[in-house]
Amino acid sequence: MVDGDSQQPPTWKFTQCFGDKGDVEDITEADIISTVEFDQTGNYLATGDKGGRVVLFERNETKKTCEYKFHTEFQSHEPEFDYLKSLEIEEKINKIKWCRRQNASHYLLSTNDKTIKLWKVFEKSLKVV
C-alpha cells in the first residue's frame, strides 16, 4: 500500500448460520451451515444446513466489492427412518455440487447420508393480473 492510500483491505466475516438470530441460545442445530459450494463461474453460491435446507445466493454485480444477495431457498431433505438398517437418517446436507450449465436453468446435486437429489433452479416470469 502506498502512503496516503486510504483503501482498506477487504474484511472477511465468518458465520455458521444466516440471518439475525439474536442470542447464541436462539440458534438451533438445524440452523448451522454444513456445506458451501460455488458454481463454476463464481457468480452463484449454494449453502446447505443441518436442517436440510439449501440456500442459493447470486453475486451482486452492482457492488464494487464481492457481495452475494439472496436468490432462493428450498427444503432439500427431510429426516427419515431406514427400516432395513433400523437407522435414523438425518436431513443434514453433506455436499452440494453444481452441474455444468447447459441452458438458462441451473442444476445442482444435494446429498444427505442416504439420498442424492438433482435440482433444477430457473427463473419464471409471472404475469400480474
UniProtKB/TrEMBL annotation:
<comment type="function">
    <text>Phosphatase 2A affects a variety of biological processes in the cell such as transcription, cell cycle progression and cellular morphogenesis, and provides an initial identification of critical substrates for this phosphatase. The regulatory subunit may direct the catalytic subunit to distinct, albeit overlapping, subsets of substrates.</text>
</comment>
<comment type="similarity">
    <text>Belongs to the phosphatase 2A regulatory subunit B family.</text>
</comment>
<dbReference type="GO" id="GO:0010972">
    <property type="term" value="P:negative regulation of G2/M transition of mitotic cell cycle"/>
</dbReference>
<dbReference type="GO" id="GO:0000159">
    <property type="term" value="C:protein phosphatase type 2A complex"/>
</dbReference>
<dbReference type="InterPro" id="IPR036322">
    <property type="entry name" value="WD40_repeat_dom_sf"/>
</dbReference>
<dbReference type="InterPro" id="IPR000009">
    <property type="entry name" value="PP2A_PR55"/>
</dbReference>
<dbReference type="GO" id="GO:1902531">
    <property type="term" value="P:regulation of intracellular signal transduction"/>
</dbReference>
<dbReference type="InterPro" id="IPR015943">
    <property type="entry name" value="WD40/YVTN_repeat-like_dom_sf"/>
</dbReference>
<dbReference type="InterPro" id="IPR018067">
    <property type="entry name" value="PP2A_PR55_CS"/>
</dbReference>
<keyword id="KW-0853">WD repeat</keyword>
<keyword id="KW-0597">Phosphoprotein</keyword>
<keyword id="KW-0677">Repeat</keyword>
<dbReference type="GO" id="GO:0019888">
    <property type="term" value="F:protein phosphatase regulator activity"/>
</dbReference>
<protein>
    <recommendedName>
        <fullName>Protein phosphatase PP2A regulatory subunit B</fullName>
    </recommendedName>
</protein>
